[in-house]
Automatic annotation (TrEMBL):
The keyword Magnesium does not apply. This is DoxX. Signal peptide: none annotated. It is found in: Membrane. The lineage of its organism: Bacteria, Pseudomonadati, Pseudomonadota, Alphaproteobacteria, Rhodobacterales. Pfam families: DoxX. Keywords: Membrane, Transmembrane, Transmembrane helix. It comes from Octadecabacter ascidiaceicola. GO terms for cellular component: membrane. The chain crosses the membrane at residues 12-37, 76-97, 104-123, 150-169.
Amino acid sequence: MIALYDRIANALNASANGILPTLARFVFAATLLFYFWNSAGTKWDGTPFSPGVGGYAQIFPKAMEAVGYDISQMSIFHWAVVVAGTLAEYILPLLIVIGLFTRFAALGMIGFVTVQSLTDLYGHGGIEHTETLGKWFDGLPTGAILDQRAFWMVVFVTLALKGAGPLSLDRVLSKNR
């Protein structure tokens, strides 16, 4: 019985390097790609290089409130952060889906989602709402931050550790080196 279990476990281990990253990229594309692209689209007026009120208000909620939502009062630093964040929401998900520079893109998304979560909690006041923050081990997987984004992180960590998998541009480029 143990020998059979070991053979099955070894077969599963051997297939994991191809299946896990491919599955992680598919799940990301099916569930989060358009979430990030739609979010990026709410941040600009005309082009990603001309952020609108939505971009500043989402990323710098307290600063925008302090200036009465007048974007002309925001600094070049604020502009640069909103533009970089908007471009990241388009580029990093695309890189993950096509499997190009996947480890780098996954690490970028880990940083992005961490900053996004902290902004949601402290900038937008989500920390004061238990239903937004969530709570681990409570039997309710509905909290937007601790529960849902933990699953996002599993996808990103899988891609950072395993790479893009066999069906990717990373694989094509590695064969040409």
